[in-house]
Amino acid sequence: MSEHVLVTGGAGFIGKAVCAELLRRGHRVRVLDSLIEQVHGPAAREAALPEGLSPEVELIHADVRDGDRVAKALRGVDSVVHLAAEVGVGQSMYEVERYTSTNDVGTAVLFERLIDSPVRRVVTASSMSIYGEGLYRDEDGALVQDAERGRLRDGQATWDPLDAQGRPLAPVATPEWKQPSLSSIYALNKFVQERTTHIMAQPYGMESVCLRLFNVYGPGQALSNPYTGVLAIFASRLLNGQPPMIFEDGEQRRDFVHVNDVARAFAEALFLPKAAGGTFNIGSGHDRSVREVANELARAMGRNAIEPEIVGKARTGDIRHCFCDTTLSRNTLGFAAQEDFAEGLAVLAGWVATQTADDRVAEARGELEARGLVA
After folding, report:
1. Per-residue pLDDT, 153
2. β-pairing, 207-213 with 215-217?
3. Fewest C-beta atoms under 10 Å: which of 30, 76, 94, 309?
4. Edge-to-edge strands of the sheet including 143-144?
5. Domain that includes residue 25, residue range
6. Within its chain, how far is the Cα of 213 from the centroid?
7. Would 375 be classed as within a structural domain?
8. DSSP letters along 236-256, please?
9. How many CB atoms lie within 10 A of CB 203?
10. Does 297 fall in a domain?
11. To 10 degrees, what angle do helices 230-239 and 361-370 make?
């Protein structure tokens, strides 16, 4: 079955991969994207087509908050993939209005226009950030959904969460039923996007799906954006001969999933009947420490001699451990990540070698420190 699909934010890193996958499957694709400079660079607005976006895509250059342009973009489409969002935990903690306006108001505008132009299904990109800390298990074997941690400056001897008796908690894979713990404005925004999608779809005869993405990586990331994915930030530093900057001690654990796998997940979620109404984790099912990943990327880029800089401080809104339980997405979507991590890093390293990047990581850290968001 071929459909005409609108992809909001479709000129971004994940959006371009989703568009390519939909085109490969025989669908027509229209993109609505504001092409903001922080993500796309200063030349993007003048370019006929953003780099990496297929010429088969119809591009509408507009903000998702512009109701008239959104209404135009919805004409004649059968389904929507909603990716348009400001992305970044740290920046969301001081550019609160910008993030909330784009993410929450933008989603509201989209669904208001969908009232008059309903589609078969909307698939919205959510984030693992809504979990806050992931799921843990205590020494008695009980699962802990509401783990919290202090900071070393408060006299705590470890970065890891402890139970009420001061005993360490062991991180385990986080499933969709784990209660949200919204520790940043970005996390709050993504949760609102989720709920708006599910609340608004059914009354107007539409189906809804939300995908909680874990740490997405791959070629095409915005290397000059210091608030993007951690692997892109590390790659930018290494490309400029600088050490990756790692907060805390580098032993925090994450799940890294390749953008090609994520694109497949969106394509499946858009059409599988049993996905309707669901919210699904999208990750690799493998956890790695941030320090380990930084070292592996340095080796892949031929920068073995550059050791990570361990900051030894935490950022407000960051969490210690969160990685993906893939059971529900595997059983319902039939989704399993296929890309090998080492091979994915090698391809990423090869792509990075062809790029230039403005290293703005120190600038971003300064912005956070000036506001007391690093301690």
Report:
1. 47
2. unpaired
3. 76
4. 143-144, 136-137, 170-171
5. 4-135+173-370
6. 5
7. no
8. HHHHTT-PPEESTTS--EEEE
9. 8
10. yes
11. 120
